[in-house]
């Protein structure tokens, strides 16, 4: 595929510039709005609408809409918050974990949706903000519970011979306080960027093969179309999976911060 | 795949996807805050209330069922007790009736016996009285006849009652003595 990327002018490969579209409103101000920001607003509007309708008149015996919304909320509550943190702490951090899960999910899912075609999380802002939120949340949880305990567990893990702390403590510091937010950000961001680039690549190649390439090469177009279709479905899965992973890791970090000992 | 990304990145503008733009952070934070408050203050409390309501409804139904069962058991116990009471009472009544029957029969028997005795004794007394009356009348008639006859025979009027009765008495005594002798 790569050779074709630099082939004749008919093929337009994906570029990183797609994640920085032209400003539409307020260009140059801190409130600049471009296409991706509009997609985010749309995703958030849909999210608010779905949950508002789903929870507007909640009844003990649910309607279909309510069942679906309940199922989603139960997934975040039972399978993430309560599973990792237990009932009590799960309830405490439930708003945060639910928010992270559904925000990431709704912003991710715009990637495979036709006409939107780019994830709201494929620009670093959202992953970074959420990673910082998760970072603040677990430090807050640990410090609030017991500052001494939290930093001792994080930096001086018990059961290690004292002289090894020379090595272990810097490693623990870097992994806990530096790597965690970075990996949270990059995992989500890169998944979304690469997913988008892949889909663009497959579909622009299909376009190229069908309408520009000659003779037998047109057949390649079938292959790239099939791959494009398969990866679109795969992106839906990735959207859900990344939302789950982000929320799950946030819960896990909070749990580690709350744990008495590792 | 990765090469494609690199190629794409190389081809693209100088923009680095790892460097956040200010507007990006602004809008991302705003979105986060909106969604957080939406879930925190609106959706999750409603969800919690629903879960509580549902738990309450289930518990309520269980309690109701328990209550119903307890009532049914109490009613059954009561009926059983009543049935036992009724049986005991029936037995008692039967015993009473039997005893009463015996008593009535015995009373009647006694009454009948007393009546019979009374009838017998009154009959005896009457018989005795009649016999006495018969003896007395017979005695006077026999005396009169005998005297009439004797006076006819001896031509002597035995008008003197004292004398006559003395004679009759002697005569009868003699008659009885002769009867005894004959026996």
Note down, in words, how this protein is organized.
Chain B: InterPro entries: ATP_synth_B-like_membr_sf, ATP_synth_b/b'su_bac/chlpt, ATP_synth_F0_bsu_bac, ATP_synthase_B_chain. Chain B: Belongs to the ATPase B chain family. Chain B: This is ATP synthase subunit b. Chain B: It is a single-pass membrane protein. Chain B: Residues 62-96 form a coiled coil. The complex is a heterodimer of chains A (262) and B (183). With 262 residues, chain A is mainly α. The longest helix of chain A is centred in the last third of the chain and has 47 residues, at 165-211. Chain A is globular. In chain A, 72% of the residues lie in helices and 2% in strands. Chain A has a two-stranded antiparallel ribbon. Chain A has one domain (2-258). In chain A, helix 3 crosses helix 8 and helix 4 (94-108) packs antiparallel against helix 8 (218-258). Chain B has one domain (18-182). With 183 residues, chain B is mainly α. Chain B is built from 3 helices and no strands. The chains are: A mainly alpha (262), B mainly alpha (183). At the A-B interface, helix 2, helix 3, helix 4, helix 5 and helix 7 of A face helix 1 and helix 2 of B.
* Uncertain segments of chain B: 8-13
Helix count of chain A, per DSSP? 8
Number of domains of chain A: 1
Largest interface: A-B, 54 and 42 residues
Write down the Rg of chain A: 22 Å
Q: Output the helix-strand order of chain B.
A: HHH
The radius of gyration computed from the alpha-carbon positions of chain B, rounded to a whole number of angstroms, is 67 Å
Number of strands of chain B: 0
> How many helices of chain B does DSSP assign?
3
Main sheet: strand order of chain A: 1-2
Given the helix and strand composition of chain B, which structural class is it?
A: mainly alpha
So what's the oligomer here?
heterodimer
Key attributes of the depicted protein:
heterodimer; A: 262 residues; mainly alpha; two-stranded antiparallel ribbon; 8 helices; 72% helix; disordered N terminus; B: 183 residues; 3 helices; 90% helix; 0% strand
């Amino acid at each position: 595929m790569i050779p074709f990327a630099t082939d004749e002018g008919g093929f337009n490969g994906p570029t990183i510039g797609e994640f920085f579209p032209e400003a539409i409103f307020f260009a140059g101000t801190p409130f600049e709005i471009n296409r991706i920001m509009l997609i985010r607003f749309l995703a958030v509007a849909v999210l608010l609408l779905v949950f508002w309708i789903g929870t507007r008149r909640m009844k003990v015996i649910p309607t279909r809409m309510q069942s679906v919304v309940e199922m989603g909320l139960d997934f975040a509550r039972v399978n993430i918050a309560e599973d990792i943190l237990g009932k009590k702490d799960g309830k405490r951090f439930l708003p945060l974990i639910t928010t992270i899960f559904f925000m990431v999910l709704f912003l991710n899912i715009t990637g495979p949706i036709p006409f939107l075609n780019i994830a709201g999380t494929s620009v670093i802002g959202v992953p970074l903000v959420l990673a910082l939120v998760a970072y603040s949340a677990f430090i807050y949880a640990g410090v609030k519970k017991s500052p001494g305990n939290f930093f001792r567990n994080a930096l001086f893990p018990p059961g290690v011979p004292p002289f090894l702390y020379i090595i272990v403590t810097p490693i623990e510091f870097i992994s806990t306080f530096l790597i965690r937010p970075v990996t949270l950000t990059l995992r989500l961001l890169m998944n979304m960027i690469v997913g988008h680039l892949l889909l663009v690549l497959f579909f622009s190649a299909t376009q190229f093969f069908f309408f520009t390439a000659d003779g037998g090469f047109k057949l390649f177009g079938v292959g790239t179309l099939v791959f494009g279709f398969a990866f679109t479905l795969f992106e839906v899965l990735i959207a859900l999976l990344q939302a789950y992973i982000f929320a799950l890791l946030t819960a896990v970090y909070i749990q580690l911060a709350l744990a008495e000992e590792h | 795949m990765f090469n494609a990304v690199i190629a794409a990145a190389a081809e693209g503008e100088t923009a680095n996807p790892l460097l956040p733009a200010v507007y990006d952070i602004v809008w991302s934070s705003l979105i986060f805050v909106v969604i957080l408050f939406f879930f925190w203050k609106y959706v999750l409390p409603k969800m919690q209330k629903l879960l509580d309501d549902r738990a309450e409804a289930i518990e309520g139904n269980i309690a109701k069922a328990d209550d119903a069962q307890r009532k049914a058991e109490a009613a059954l116990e009561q009926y059983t007790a009543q049935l036992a009471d009724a049986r005991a009472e029936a037995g008692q009544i039967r015993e009473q009736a039997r005893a009463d029957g015996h008593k009535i029969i015995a009373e009647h028997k006694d009454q009948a016996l007393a009546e019979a005795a009374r009838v017998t004794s009154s009959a005896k007394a009457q018989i005795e009285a009649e016999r006495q009356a018969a003896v007395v009348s017979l005695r006077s008639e026999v005396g009169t006849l005998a005297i009439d006859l004797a006076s006819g025979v001896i031509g002597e009027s035995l008008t003197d009652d004292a004398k006559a009765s003395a004679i009759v008495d002697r005569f009868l005594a003699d008659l009885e003595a002769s009867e005894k002798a004959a026996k």
